[in-house]
Amino acid sequence: MKPKKIAPQPWAMAETIVFNTLVAYFRDAQYYGNVFAVTGNAGCGKTFAAKWFAGENKSVYHLECAEYWNRKTFLEKLLLAIGEQQPGGNVAEMMDATVDALFQRETPLLIIDEADKLSDQVLYFFISFYNLLKGHCGIILMATPHLAQRIERGRRLKRKGYAEIFSRIGRRFIPLSAVSKKELAAICNANSISDEETITTVYHECEGDLRRVEREIHKRRRKNLQQQNN
């Protein structure tokens, strides 16, 4: 006999230092056309905050990058994110269409998530976007600390484009902090887990990765619901 299926519960948001820090930089970049590069470990909440901000604000375009993208794929995905439903043409035409579309928006913000997955040839687009949209469109590069290490190594080796990228982000990568136990407790409480022993166990097992936290909370929710239904 198959176990009774339990409907998944929605994930409740709890504000963390990472979330509030990112929202502050998103707002600054959007309303003042600023450019920032933000780095944080995998699972620290970068993508969650970006999706939330894009859902709550107009003219905010969040793009999750992938390592297999070439230049044309990147521009196709970006045009779709902006709202252009039938992107096409060569790279130059698509670049022009992207810039034109962003100029038509009021206070646009482009969040390039997982930027460390992009090849050099695609990452160079950041330089062009900065040059063509400066003061009109905010840009946020988000990645793991690997991007900062990559840019620093490229600068040291005098590789093409790396010094230009570093200059355009203000010669600084903004590091995000790891989730604290107090913040994790707030996340657990928001998602119906309040037992202190359970929270402590989750904190020590998650290693700062909120994806792991979500899995652990889901597992404990499911266990609690099953016990209630028995």
Automatic annotation (TrEMBL):
Residues 33-150 form the ORC1/DEAH AAA+ ATPase domain. InterPro entries: AAA_22 (IPR049945), ExeA_AAA_ATPase_DNA-bind (IPR052026), P-loop_NTPase (IPR027417). This is ORC1/DEAH AAA+ ATPase domain-containing protein. One of its GO terms (molecular function) is ATP hydrolysis activity. Signal peptide: none annotated.
